[in-house]
Amino acid sequence: MTEDLTPAQAYAAALARNAEQATALAPFREMYEFGLDPFQIEACKALEAGKGVLVAAPTGSGKTIVGEFAVHLALTQGRKCFYTTPIKALSNQKYADLVKRYGADKVGLLTGDNSVNGDAPIVVMTTEVLRNMLYAGSQALSGLGYVVMDEVHYLSDRFRGAVWEEVIIHLPESVTLVSLSATVSNAEEFGDWLDTVRGDTEVIVSESRPVPLWQHVLAGRRMYDLFEEETDHGGRGASRREVNPDLLRLARTENTRTYNPRDRRRGKMIREADRERERRQRSRIWTPGRPEVIERLDAEGLLPAITFIFSRAACEAAVQQCLYAGLRLNDDEGRLRVREIVEARTAAIPTEDLHVLGYYEWLEALERGIAAHHAGMLPTFKEVVEDLFVRGLVKAVFATETLALGINMPARTVILEKLVKWNGEQHADITPGEYTQLTGRAGRRGIDVEGHAVVLWQRGLDPEHLAGLAGTRTYPLRSSFKPSYNMAVNLVDQFGRHRSRELLETSFAQFQADRSVVGISRQVQKNEEGLDGYREGMTCHLGDFEEYARLRRDLKDRETELARQGAAQRRAQAAGSLEKLKPGDIIHVPTGKFAGLALVLDPGIPAGRTNGHRGFEHHDGPRPLVLTAERQVKRLASIDFPVPVEALERMRIPKSFNPRSPQSRRDLASALRSKAGHINPERHHKQRSAAADDREIARLRTEIRAHPCHGCDEREDHARWAERYHRLQRDTQQLERRIEGRTNTIARTFDRIVALLTELDYLRGSDVTENGKRLARLYGELDLLASECLRDRVWEGLTPAELAACVSALVFEARQSDDAVAPKLPAGNAKAALGEMVRIWGRLDALEEEFKINQAEGVGQREPDLGFAWAAYQWASDKSLDEVLREAEMPAGDFVRWCKQVIDVLGQIAAAAPKENSTVGKNARKAVDALLRGVVAYSSVG
Fold it and tell me: What is the pTM of this model?
């Protein structure tokens, strides 16, 4: 091609090549065997030009190359680079990658678990570690030139997202920020905000996957393509994607063949024919079993594969099903290699613990090339699975969605069993963003020509809906930023109250809120034009119809208010009757899922609010624990008792009764039916309506009848216009309140937090008190509660094991609320201290309500959860793993994770506790040592 250039063009090209050779990018590119993509080159050039960058690109596209270039620039310039990740596993993985490239002396690691070479020029860390360093004014920040924030879209995480914004806002101006994100639809908006708070920031968006992704649906024996590619013959050569008509036909057939047993018009012969036709159809269409799916993919050369199942138990069950089916994906050489790697990686685990951890069953599956991957597994086991998968020695992994969060574990094929998952509150459809994140694992760059996403056919699957999920490649990034108590004292300590308020107003949350106000203002203007038209429509020639309509509304509102008061009075009477119940009372539950005969096991009268929630009436009253006649032990709420209840009879509850034992429940329920099954409860008589005797209602009715507009022939027509006017006026006022509410929202929340902290003597104006300095060292959801416990000396005199039990209540949150049985607690001082912690929380909860600090908005202190206290106490008391896990009824992975979180907070408490006249700091360090043993200490680096 060079011979086609003119001398001037050849000279210009030579100059360009020489200029590029003089850049830091040229030697960096030579480190890789493959050429860099255009978006990577563009981002690297912007970085070298001194700009910050936001790179938004699909999973597996290689956006971390840009982060690695920042590392390269820092080393070239003799400066430091911090590489932050959202999770410890990712930090460990990145640390291992960078050590391979630059050597262990130049790379450090800082997570909650590990501290390795923290003074190195390159340090990999979790984002929280960097946040804490910024607030502490750490010396490690000196010489910092670059910060890479991998997976920066985590800032939309409602639990941890605020940390990312804190770091972005508080990093020194001299630091260049590299933000790496999944593809988000509002990257430009996020980039605009970064430009505002960090200076010149280049936004680079790439939506093309490095490996093409093919979408399929597996139904019965056939693999259907989701899309039918059709060339656009309009001359542009483009391609548009239509849903495969065969799939649409399949869905229609499935929907029309459902037999309805209530259709009485059909005769028996027709029904038999329907059933026979359904059997024939089912022989062609079914949801393949898990072993069948893996065998099918293996036969078609589509392994390795990750099957996403949104349940830990189902992941383990899937592995067992494959074992029972005799599935073997490794040859003899592969099996020996697996055993060799596994035995080396697990050599530190004592033999007696291996059986408890299910090691031998796990190893058998690994030797066959099959594994599960979920948060309930021991971290060491998960790391081994990841390692073997990358080596090609595990070819089928059944995983929960946590595997999709950044771990470098690409596959040729990704399988989704269902498009519905439990989101913590209900079963909900997965979002386009979640679908993109999950299927983004398919297709290994440099290995696969194409990746495959396979959705298993399920009854009711809608191909159009699936195509919508697959076709929506991006999702919006929404800020979850909220001020916290710890954040408030740290900000005031560093910047003073006024400057702190200004800093918070620069958050992405406030940036988005301010932008949304523009659209709302336009809607208010449109509504005001509509109000003029409605006003004209309700005009009456006999009088002021607006006044008449207001009288009618006042009447309706008064009737509604009286009905509400009556309902509240009935609820109060019902709550009062519940408070009189005693263990052994036999009652009749009047309504709800568990209506019928029940035996009171525990009256459930709360000391304060339940579960840390405000604003839910049925949480406020007694919540009796009962045994129903159907043998179920359930915690009822006041919503189950719309009318007062009273004991029909009494019976003795045996001391040996165990609510967890089916036999125990069966025997007591049988005795309950024998004792009171014949008793019919008295019916509750309806009381006379309060509206019948209300003077205000009588007055309003008189005024309405006397009003001139009451006699208008077109009264109801005018009334309809008046109702529309009222509704639109109410909507407009709500919009105006939203505009007012969105302006300075973060700062107003900060003001309320500062007011509460001032009340508790953590702040005095812009000065941070000694109490405040202690709070500044406590990070976590229950930071203020921990600080108050230190101030009130709640933990003085506790043994290390007792202290571990108490601190566990600050971090633990049960995956599912289990009200059936109160958690087992250590006796003596620990139990008293835990009770005092709950009482302090109740005081703080009341104070938060007084200062309008709302937990529903993600601010404030939830109730401490005592569910892990016994397990933490037992482990810190040197009990065996078998005994602790058996009593805790908890997977090993969850146990290890909670122990590590307890260790993290114990470390903070050791640093924050008084140095004189206190045993807490010393015992917190001893508790850390007591917990950090066995499986808890196994976690490896890299």
Answer: 0.70
